[in-house]
Amino acid sequence: MSNHTKGAGQNSPAKNPPFEEALQKLEAVVEAMESDDLPLETLLAKYEDGAKLVKICQEKLAEAELKIQQLEKNAAGEMKLKPLNLSEEE
């Protein structure tokens, strides 16, 4: 039962964690790699983990940027449409 509960809530974010969590994990990976105490195989595994986390962070930032641009366009579109409609009616 505990595995079922874990799978529903705890393990699913591991595949696609929130931005802040992915960034914290990435920072931990970088710190571990900089320690110089890891064997080559572990360094390669950490590098792979880090690359995946970088991709997740980049995707999340791109999504956020798109949402912001859409909000700006909607807000700007409303502001521009109102004066255009008024000037067309006059």
Task: Tell me what you see in this structure.
The protein is mainly α and 90 residues long. It has a single domain, classed as Orthogonal Bundle (Helix Hairpins). 87% of the residues lie in helices and 0% in strands. The protein has 4 helices and no strands. Helix 3 runs antiparallel to helix 4. It is rod-shaped, with a radius of gyration of 22 Å.
Please give the number of β-strands: 0
Shape type: rod-shaped
> Which segments are poorly predicted (pLDDT under 50) over 5 or more consecutive residues?
1-14, 79-90
Level-2 CATH architecture = Orthogonal Bundle
Q: Can you tell me the CATH topology?
A: Helix Hairpins
CATH class, anyone?
Answer: Mainly Alpha
Question: What's this, in brief?
Answer:
This protein has 90 residues and is mainly α.
Task: Please tag this protein with its features.
90 residues, mainly alpha, Helix Hairpins, 4 helices, 0% strand, rod-shaped, disordered N terminus, disordered C terminus
Write the layout of secondary structure elements.
Elements: H1 2-9, H2 12-15, H3 19-34, H4 40-89
Helix pairs in contact: 3-4
